[in-house]
Specification:
By secondary structure, the protein is mainly alpha-helical. It is 58% helix and 8% strand. Helix 2 (25-32) crosses helix 3. The longest helix has 17 residues, at 123-139. The radius of gyration is 20 Å and the shape is elongated. The two termini are 19 Å apart. 9% of the residues are buried.
Length: 154
């Protein structure tokens, strides 16, 4: 099970993922200081913990380390989605509700992803099923779709 990143962990990982190159604690700290006050040791501790948890790898360069991500933000997001989906007693219903919450742009991204991920022989039927589920859910009254109360605070 993938643990969701804490607020500061997410801010650090966002920079590491965006920069897509090995970074030092100093570089991350300087960028974070534009938004909030932090000590060097705080950022160093967070990056060390991310290393220990397996999110970052590091290589020593002089007295400092250079850190880089072990996997992409997309892989992290997919793991969180998979864990959330796995908690449902009815995964098909959970997907139908999820499709119903999607914007038209997100639905189009889903169609694109299914075209890439689906085997050639199943591509049409899988895409059609996802589209039909999204359309059926979109036709249901919004009162049938319940978001957790804290979903907007994340």
């Amino acid at each position: 099970m993938v643990r969701q990143l804490g607020e500061l962990e997410n801010e650090v990982m966002t920079r590491v993922w965006q920069w897509n190159r090995p970074v030092t604690v100093r570089e991350v700290l300087e960028d974070l200081l534009r938004e909030r006050e932090l000590a060097y040791t705080t950022v160093m501790t967070v990056m060390d913990k991310l290393f220990q948890k397996g999110w970052l790898r590091r290589e020593q360069e002089g007295r400092a380390f250079r850190y880089e991500p072990v996997s992409s933000r997309e892989a992290y997001t997919a793991a969180l989605m998979n864990d959330a989906w796995a908690t449902s007693d009815n995964p098909a219903a959970a997907l139908v509700h999820f499709f119903g919450m999607m914007s038209p742009e997100q639905q189009e991204a889903l169609r694109d992803a299914l075209r890439v991920a689906a085997p050639p022989s199943a591509e049409h039927s899988t895409e059609q099923t996802a589209e039909e589920a999204a359309e059926e859910t979109a036709e249901q009254p919004s009162a049938d779709i319940h978001e957790p109360p804290d979903a907007t605070t994340r």
